[in-house]
Amino acid sequence: MKYGFIKSVIRSLKRKFGQPITLYKTTSIGTMDWTVGTVASRSVESKDIKRAIILPGRTTRKFSYDIGFLAANKNFTYGGFYDVTQREIIIERSDVGTFGLTLDYRVRFGESDYIIKELQEFEESQSYYLVVIKLKGQINEQ
After folding, report:
1. Is 60 within 8 Å of 103 (Cβ atoms)?
2. Domains of the chain by range and CATH?
3. How far apart are CA 105 and CA 142, in angstroms?
4. Among candidates 123, 141, 113, which has minimal Cα distance to 6?
5. Residue pLDDT, tens place only, 35-70
6. What pTM value is reported for the model?
7. 3-state secondary structure of 140
8. Exposed end of the chain (fewer CB within 10 Å): N or C?
């Protein structure tokens, strides 16, 4: 087998360091109560993964300028700092099954939701490599 070594390494890492995650996507949103800001009904498509390899996260502080400063070359109007946590996750293809993983899904790990920033498939569809991000203070969707 051409990729037998890669498959055995991924399975070994799953046994030693694997943690449960949930992949989910909101498929439809029903009515919204604008006075309170809550959604009355929501349809969610999800898939539980028993063991995913979750690599350590990095938190960085970023700064964004107001679009008026960039577009019109005016004096600085306003901007802001925000903290972003980025993690890498490896999921074995057999754990996903026929579930069609795309960038539209989110990852729930522990009590935090992460947005999929980058999605790659390893050789011969052996596994998925995800780069996920979370903004500090973001509200969890589920």
Report:
1. no
2. 4-135 (2.40.10)
3. 12
4. 123
5. 776 766 777 888 999 999 999 888 888 877 666 655
6. 0.76
7. coil
8. N
